[in-house]
Write a structure and sequence with these properties.
By secondary structure, the chain is mainly beta. The protein contains 5 helices and 31 strands. Strand 19 and strand 20 form a beta hairpin.
Length: about 500
């Protein structure tokens, strides 16, 4: 993120088994807005029932074998037997009730002594990424563990209940597993799905008229048709990434000249950011990380860190074939074909966005993301640390900062206590010289990005995930609201997170 102009600031970017129980498999309104291009895959939609305000559904996690054209036969852990999982659609005030079935085999019996060494690859839980919901109990509680059965072939059942606040912002979010030690492996196998909160922005006439398209980008690390478990630091370093959009390699999407479509783009990868560019077209960004802007912003390209989302409006240009690229100019994510009878669809001029004004802070914090190479013996030699205010103390208090465990996640140590309602200013510095791609992600609350590399942005932007530039910094303001309890911040390069680049945040009154 280098430009300070607003166009440069916006760099945030077969139907499964396991049926819906009391929800509906796509409300008529949601389904209608996604119809129109049967050749472009869309994840199955599961929506809350309009009369009850409940989405009660089941998600089964197991090893599945799929044949993906252009990739081959792939065996990996999935939700509901497909990549990605179903799209869950709710509205403010609804409840999301999920029965999780763990159909994975037992974890191996290897002794586990260091929580910051990847482990228990068949254990998972639920994170509703970007949602402003309760981080405790059976809601967005990433400290829970959904263990597999100890008996091969058996399953276990676990339940989540997430109450969506009545004033929750409408936007694009997503769900994925977040068990510390197994997250990177499971995300690189394709476990994840879109989570859409419907609301005010969807009623803007120009947006209501546009086709609603989920563009869910998965990143797989395949070796011999399988995603290997992260059993050593270099497990994934020699493997090229395979990028899928809605489970397909380079799918084809059609649009008419002058037609406007709304794309909900999710970077569900664990290790790669995407610079999104669509040749011959401007992208009119209307939201970042689920928070709507006050007006659309035209841009020719934007960077989407791992875990980040953008909502963009695309208006079909001249007839022809165009590539949406990301992860590098030669990496095609999807192909857009402009064809058919011209249409004349306008773009909105104003949006029901969130104000980007916060009071002056009454507290400051300073964090340092640092990776140190070859400091441990064994399969995971690197130390991924978060230092600065609230840093984790060394395992041996007498060892001082020479202790190699210093700055890595500790199970019961609260690193940051944040008071609800108090405005804080945080500066996060990237002090890594190698393995330096560190997207900062905060659970439960969005934050307002105000500066990059100590240079103020022309217009602040709400985020829940943002890349910290190598040898640089980000500055943001935070006002935590509504929910108390233990939550988390971490690096969303998820191998770094699994190896300790993570802190416990306790929201208090």
């Amino acid at each position: 993120m280098t430009s300070l102009a607003r166009r440069g600031v916006l760099k945030c970017l077969p139907v499964a088994a396991g049926a819906v129980m009391t929800g509906v498999a796509g409300s008529p309104r949601a389904v209608a807005r996604q119809e129109g291009d049967p050749s472009f895959p869309q994840p199955e939609i599961r929506s809350s029932a309009p009369r009850t305000g409940r989405l009660e559904t089941r998600l089964t996690v197991g090893f599945t074998e799929q044949v993906i054209p252009g990739v081959g036969t792939v065996t990996t852990r999935t939700y509901e037997g497909v990549i990605p999982g179903p799209t869950l659609r709710v509205r403010p005030g609804d409840s999301l009730e999920i029965e999780h079935i763990n159909a994975l085999p037992p974890n191996d019996g290897a002794a586990h002594h260091d929580m910051n060494v990847p482990h228990h690859f068949n254990t998972f839980n639920l994170h509703t990424h970007g949602m402003h919901v309760d981080p405790t109990g059976e809601a967005d509680n990433i400290y829970r563990t959904f263990e597999p059965s100890d008996t091969p072939g058996d399953t276990t059942t676990h339940r989540s209940r997430v109450e969506v606040p009545a004033d929750h912002p409408a936007g694009t979010f997503w769900y994925h597993p977040h068990h510390h030690g197994s997250t990177a492996t499971q995300l690189l196998g394709g476990m994840g799905g879109a989570l859409v909160v419907e609301g005010d922005v969807d009623e803007v006439p120009e947006i209501a008229a546009a086709k609603d398209v989920v563009v869910f980008i998965s990143e797989l690390k395949l070796s011999g048709g399988r995603v290997p478990d992260l059993t050593s630091h270099g497990t994934y370093e020699g493997l090229d990434s395979t990028f899928l959009v809605n489970g397909a390699k380079n799918p084809v999407l059609t649009i008419a000249p002058g037609e406007v479509q709304r794309w909900r783009v999710v970077n569900a990868g664990a290790v790669t950011a995407h610079f999104l560019s669509l040749r011959g077209h401007e992208m009119h960004q209307i939201a970042c990380d689920g928070i709507t802007f006050m007006e659309p912003v035209a841009t020719s390209g934007l960077t989407l860190p791992m875990g980040g989302r953008v909502d963009v409006l695309i208006r079909g240009g001249e007839p022809g074939t165009y590539k949406l690229t990301g992860g590098g100019p030669s990496q095609t994510l999807l192909t857009l074909v402009v064809t058919g009878e011209p249409r004349s669809m306008p773009l909105p001029t104003s949006l029901p966005g969130r104000s980007t004004s916060l009071p002056e802070p009454t507290r400051t914090r300073h964090l340092i993301f640092r990776s140190d190479e070859n400091v441990f013996s064994g399969a995971f030699p690197n130390a991924y640390r978060i230092l600065g205010d609230g840093e984790t103390p060394p395992a041996d208090p007498l060892a001082g900062r020479s202790d190699l465990a210093w700055g890595r996640l500790a199970a019961d140590f609260v690193n940051q206590r944040v008071r609800l309602g108090e405005v804080e200013e945080w500066t996060v510095v990237n002090d890594s010289h190698a393995h330096s791609h560190h997207p900062f992600h905060l659970h439960t609350n969005h934050f307002l990005l105000t500066a990059v590399d100590n240079r103020r942005l022309a217009a602040p932007v709400w985020h829940d995930t943002v890349s910290v530039p190598p040898n640089g910094s980000i500055t943001f303001r935070l006002r935590a609201e509504d929910f108390t309890g233990r939550s988390m911040l971490h690096c969303h390069q998820l191998q770094h997170g699994d190896e300790g680049m993570m802190q416990i945040v306790d929201y208090v009154r």
